[in-house]
Design goal:
With 363 residues, the protein is an alpha+beta fold. The protein is 34% helix and 24% strand.
Length: 363
């Protein structure tokens, strides 16, 4: 592991220790894959990281022995078998610890039972957002990786515009997006690709079906890729053939709501105020009930993370947040439209990670 990477992980561990002290914890344990990747660089499927005031101990099994040696930043790296929690308990790593924080939103009932058995219920302290709050502000290395992920998805969008045609099924188009993501170097899709055409466009999360694309239909394309552990996320709605006047009108409303919400982005802004901007525009246009989801969310190691851009959100934007702005209007039995950009929050504005045009594209 390069010295620069080690420095990044040391900085993050120092921030975790500061939060541990604030919450009265003498240690923190996680088996959450995004948290482990963020804190020590681990990208496997079975691991556990213990952070104390002075040391970090990482546990995994034989499958990840070589990966751990070269890619994990921890003071102690232990390869074991069976339950990692039991292995740590057997080696007395929990004995001197009194208050051990764990991520209550990322622990299953079964895992909590194991922790209670081998650590002790009195020592365990449930925490919320202890890592997520740190992850919400991206550093320069994270932003570089995110930009690479978005560059891939933007290239995929440009490529598929040339192959979309009537008669192609939504599933075929979805497969093309997934294939091209990997062909350009992505590890995977960020989520199941959404391809919703015609009347199916009124389904905000309408994953691809066997429906065939037709002329004079909108196609909502919501997709992203996983690159270096980080996600891209973008949505564009295009039309095959000449749209009706109603289709153009509603598209213009969504575009106006999306752009005006973007224009208000800067550090210090309340997240719910961004949501209000978009919601006021769609409501005044007579489509308030047809915009039923939140305006956006944070993006990073998880496809949905802090901050939440929603009507009841208490989050305040900070420089380095990476957020989506994605209003939509969904008219049952007719069509749906969503436009989504992902932005980096700056002190006096924002940088756009999504480079693809968002004016109406007619194919």
């Amino acid at each position: 592991m390069k010295a620069a990477e080690n420095n990044i992980y040391r900085t993050r561990i120092a921030a975790i220790r500061k939060e541990m002290k604030h919450q009265g914890l003498d240690s923190f344990v996680t088996s959450s894959f995004p948290s482990m990747r963020y804190l020590c660089g681990y990208s496997g499927s079975n691991g556990m990281l213990i952070v104390t005031g002075r040391t970090t101990i990482f546990f995994t099994d034989f499958r990840y022995k070589e990966t751990t040696q070269t890619s994990v930043a921890a003071d102690k790296k232990i390869i074991t078998q069976g339950s990692l929690t039991q292995a740590a308990a057997d080696q007395k790593f929990f004995s001197a610890l009194k208050k051990i924080g764990f991520e209550k939103e990322r622990v299953t009932v079964a895992d909590l039972e194991i922790k209670t058995r081998f650590i002790g219920e009195k020592k365990l302290v449930p925490t919320a957002g202890i890592v997520e709050s740190l992850r919400s502000v991206k550093d320069a290395s994270e932003l570089r990786t995110l930009k690479q992920a978005f560059d891939i998805s933007d290239k995929v969008f440009q490529q598929i515009l040339g192959i979309i045609k009537p008669g192609m099924t939504e599933l075929e188009l979805s497969a093309e997006i997934s294939y091209r993501h990997k062909s350009l170097g992505a590890e995977n899709d960020s989520f199941d690709v959404i391809v919703a055409s015609g009347v199916r466009g009124s389904l905000p999360h309408g994953t691809a079906s066997l429906k065939k694309l037709k002329r004079r239909e909108f196609i909502t394309l919501d997709f992203g890729c996983l690159y270096g552990g980080y996600h891209s996320d973008m949505t564009r709605t295009v039309c095959i053939g000449t749209p009706t006047s109603e289709m153009r009108k509603v598209y213009g409303i969504v575009l106006d709501a999306q752009q005006k919400s973007c224009d208000a982005v800067r550090s210090g802004v309340r997240a719910r105020d961004l949501d209000s901007i978009a919601r006021e525009i769609t409501t005044k246009a007579g489509f308030g009930k047809e915009f039923g989801h939140s305006l956006g969310h944070g993006v990073g190691l998880d496809i949905h993370e802090l901050p939440r851009i929603a009507p009841k959100s208490t989050d305040i934007l900070a420089e380095g947040n990476v957020i989506t702005i994605e209003p939509g209007i969904y008219i049952p039995k007719k069509f749906g439209i969503r436009i989504e950009d992902t932005l980096v929050v700056r002190q006096n504005g924002y940088d756009v990670l999504t480079a693809s045009p968002k004016e109406l594209i007619v194919l």
